[in-house]
């Protein structure tokens, strides 16, 4: 049975292959910038869809293994959760293709890699967090961080469990964090107020300033 760290590494491999495949597609395009953008809009969503299914399947297997290890009562069948993000994905692909109009394939590739990595990893996280909402024996989910930045380290600190249904899995470009379910009997702490605030999609200027200060004080040795 894979650990949370091993499952995270497996997800990273899936996302890396998705990025590599998309970059190969970018390099194979030719003609005008408009034509190359058109080709990306046609091809990249298919790549993302293929690897999203693999990402979600990894998460479902991990969820079931963790549930069995927790030895909780009752049966539960985890679902693969892959949301339809066609419109947002197409907008992101169009954004990544903008540098092609200036002849900058390098920047276009960097942008495309950011988009594809985030989208390929999203179904893993959604499958974990979504199933914890459905499972009567789940109390929430915790973040498994890669340790790369202040923000992610703070969100994962203390093995904190996010129990509120409205909690959002915050991520950034090239974020390699994943989620793990927490079940009845888990003895870790609940997420703190600052962790919930940091998870929000939008924050007030005062909250942003307080968060920056908190990160600087508590995670001085990490970048970000």
Describe the structure.
The chain has one domain. Helices cover about 60% and strands about 5% of the residues. The protein contains 7 helices and 3 strands, in the order H-H-H-H-E-H-E-E-H-H. It has helices spanning about 5-30, 35-70, 85-95, 105-135, 150-155, 195-200, 205-220; strands at about 140-145, 160, 180-185. Helix 5 crosses helix 6 (about 195-200). The chain starts with a helix and ends in a 6-residue tail after the last helix.
Question: What is the strand and helix layout of this fold?
Answer:
Elements: H1 4-28, H2 33-70, H3 86-97, H4 105-134, E1 138-144, H5 150-156, E2 161-162, E3 178-183, H6 193-199, H7 205-218
Antiparallel strand pairs: 1-2, 1-3
Helix pairs in contact: 1-2, 1-4, 2-3, 2-4, 3-4, 5-6
Element string (H = helix, E = strand): HHHHEHEEHH
Level of helix content? 55-70%
Tell me, briefly, the overall form. Answer: globular
Radius of gyration: 19 Å
Structural class: mainly alpha
Main sheet: which strands, in order across?
Answer: 2-1-3
Low-confidence stretches: none
Number of domains: 1
User: Biggest β-sheet, characterized?
Assistant: 3 strands, antiparallel
Count of helix runs: 7
- Please report the distance between the alpha carbons of the first and last residues: 33 Å
- Can you give the mean pLDDT? 91
Keywords:
224 residues, mainly alpha, globular, three-stranded antiparallel sheet, 7% strand
